[in-house]
């Protein structure tokens, strides 16, 4: 149980550790390790959940989690990214259409955030939430929805996928905060389940991915962000034990298990 909470904490408090480094690298965001920079027009479905706070009367917006546009009013993220019920929706926003973590794009007000009612912080199952915007998201070259995979999309182990997120590229987070992506491969379910055997159950609502080539050494992007394969959203960044650790693939929410839930929420 302790390990699970730690795992969740890693991704919620959002840091990534690199095993080979004696010091754990941490930042305020789970991030792509050794990814490459992409322009938002290459991943126009990428969005971010942001939260404002007031500092001496000045409003400051902070990045909370990655998110993904699936319709003109619907954006998916991870349930563990959903703020507590007491958080005022007016202090939250969905930002789309930017290659930079802290500037550019358009921010939309949020009318609701619904986390899956069976999300479990203990088992990390059903880690999915749907955000609805107050006004319709305007699509462009840098803002567009991605189709959500259903169960007819086959994803055998080895299938190529792309994970993206707004990562800090430096430890202090003072340098570039840009959109990064990493090419990863889907990991067969039994292989992933075996890897996590001592830590947690890899259930049907989860899908794992990893970069098999160590030179790419990919890792998860922001929690709540997209994993895309065959031009469909196949996963939402959920959790992992460490990052860029060959023993532990990244674990994502398998969205094809949630088609009905998503459709219900979008109504
Ligand atoms: C599954 O997704 C494919 C591709 O997006 C679509 O053509 C097909 O109609 C979907 N099947 C179901 C049962 O929704």
Automatic annotation (TrEMBL):
Q: What is this enzyme's EC? A: 3.4.21.4
PROSITE patterns associated with the record = TRYPSIN_DOM, TRYPSIN_HIS, TRYPSIN_SER
Q: Name one GO cellular component term.
A: extracellular region
The answer on whether this UniProt entry bears the keyword RNA-binding reads no
The UniProt GO MF terms for this protein read: serine-type endopeptidase activity
Q: CDD domains in the record, alphabetically? A: Tryp_SPc
Entries under SUPFAM superfamilies matching the protein: Trypsin-like serine proteases
Q: Which GO terms describe its biological process?
A: protein processing
What range(s) does the Peptidase S1 domain occupy? 32-267
Q: Which reaction does it catalyse?
A: Preferential cleavage: Arg-|-Xaa, Lys-|-Xaa
| Entry keyword set | Disulfide bond, Hydrolase, Protease, Secreted, Serine protease, Signal
Q: Which residues form the signal peptide?
A: 1-20
- Indicate the principal place this protein occupies in or around the cell: secreted
User: InterPro entries annotated for this entry?
Assistant: Peptidase_S1, Peptidase_S1_PA, Peptidase_S1_PA_chymotrypsin, Peptidase_S1A, Trypsin_dom, TRYPSIN_HIS, TRYPSIN_SER
Name where it's found: Secreted
The UniProt similarity line reads: Belongs to the peptidase S1 family.
Q: What name does UniProt use for this protein? A: trypsin
Q: What organism, scientifically named, is this protein from?
A: Arctia plantaginis
